[in-house]
Amino acid sequence: MNTPLQNATAHFRSKISGEMSSLKVEEWDLTIYYKPSATLKEQSKIIELSQKGNTVEALVETLIQRARNEDGTKMFAPADRQVFMNEVDPEVIIRVVSEINGVDDELDLDDAGKN
Question: How far is CA 48 from CA 10, 25, 61, 99, in A?
Fold first, then answer.
């Protein structure tokens, strides 16, 4: 007989061990792969940034944490954060992160810039 915690962990393992989804980013001439879910540990910095009202930084952190190469390795490194913040089209970042997070309506760039 499974315990409630065993049921919860089995459910989550099935989500993170399955197939990755992919997103073609024409502007960057690449395909980003991502899993439908992330661990709470992976999400902790994103949650912290969001709670502090740092929406833009949370978007970049989401991209760094969730974007994968086809083999499942992380596509971006924490050291890429400043480049994303200063040298990459924010509209593309917002669109990509919205897709990764499964958000139907894209975040308004003006609203993100206010944080």
Answer: 27, 27, 11, 21
Q: How far apart are CA 84 and CA 75, in angstroms?
A: 13
Question: For domain 17-113, which architecture applies?
Answer: 2-Layer Sandwich (3.30)
pTM over 0.70, yes/no: yes
pLDDT at residue number 109:
47
CA dist 18 to 2, 35, 36, Å? Answer: 22, 8, 8
